[in-house]
Design a protein that fits this description.
five-stranded parallel beta sheet, Rossmann fold, globular, two-stranded antiparallel ribbon, alpha/beta
């Protein structure tokens, strides 16, 4: 009994250090899953969206108030869980831009990347429920400190200590309203690529439908986008034309818009990418500048034409 109480106490202290974070990715999680927010534009997706949509630049150019809710490695199911958990405490945005990783649609991935980062937020019951559907261990992580402690990890502990001491981590300054400024990794070099076909896995399709449905229920205008890929995806994807056609059909069925922005003129510039699928901060600035005008002209109801 004493050991159990001690473990619960230590875990509470550990989580408190993470919840004290006012910068970096834990501040992002605090905003998304704890705080009450009134952002009117939400960006949702995986690491591509997290790194491609510069919220500071977007807000400056559009006069909107945006937040990047995207999570590294997020499948449509993880993205749906994040959005639903966000809406537990926050008002629904006026606009949601969902990043479609069309090159990744065929993979049914039951992994929650860096799942231990979410332990302090599982008292958000929506997040716990939806994450448990993906990884059944989440309920045990929430209730059982004997089960959760071995998965904490040194990095997680270090981040908690930094929170208690109010000392920023190395990459904290690279986050702003959920956007991650990728300035650490080198630009794209020449790497061998084996072209492949993709298709829409049924689970991914169902959860895309769920994201669209929840937006309609909340009167949020959802737009589907595919942001820049090196060489527009033509190097990698053999059936790009077919998958884009399918995404347009899905958008038409749901009376929403899908825009393929993966082949913008600068997409052949290796200096703007860290790999074939991720822009660095220079590329993100170029893309966000383009997107901001695109948003005003094509997405916002008060279009500037």
């Amino acid at each position: 009994m004493l050991i159990t109480l001690l473990l619960f106490g230590l875990r509470k202290l550990h989580y408190h250090g993470l919840l004290k974070q006012t910068a970096g990715y834990y501040d992002k999680y605090n905003t998304a899953f704890v705080n009450k927010n009134h952002f009117n534009v939400i960006f949702l997706g995986s690491s591509r969206a997290e790194m491609h949509y510069n919220t500071h630049l977007f807000d400056t150019l559009t006069k909107q108030n945006s937040f990047n809710l995207s999570l590294a490695g997020a499948t449509p199911q993880v993205a749906f869980a994040a959005l639903k958990a966000y809406l537990q405490n926050s008002t629904a945005p006026e606009y949601l831009i969902y990043e479609i990783d069309y090159h990744f649609l065929k993979y049914e991935n039951n992994e929650i990347k860096n799942f231990n980062n979410y332990f302090p937020y599982l008292n958000n019951k929506t997040l716990l429920t939806e994450f448990t559907k993906i990884d059944g261990r989440m309920t045990h992580f929430y209730y059982n400190p004997y089960y959760s402690w071995p998965y904490i990890g040194f990095k997680n502990l270090s981040t908690s200590i930094h929170g208690w001491l109010n000392i920023p981590n190395q990459i904290d300054s690279l986050y702003y309203k959920g956007y991650f400024k990728e300035s650490l990794r080198p630009s794209l070099t020449f790497v061998p690529i084996e072209p492949y076909y993709t298709y829409f896995n049924i689970t991914n399709r169902n959860y895309l439908d769920s994201i669209i449905t929840i937006c309609k229920q909340k009167n949020t205008k959802i737009t589907l986008l595919s942001s820049p890929i090196f060489a527009g995806g033509k190097v990698d994807l053999l059936n790009k034309k077919q998958i884009i056609l399918q995404l347009n059909n899905i958008a038409n069925i749901n009376d929403i818009n899908y825009y393929d922005l993966s082949s913008l003129p600068f997409c052949n510039n290796r200096k703007l990418f860290i790999d074939h699928y991720h822009l660095n901060y220079l590329g993100a600035n170029k893309y966000t500048t383009f997107l901001s005008q695109f948003f005003n002209n094509k997405i916002a109801t008060n279009s500037l034409k």
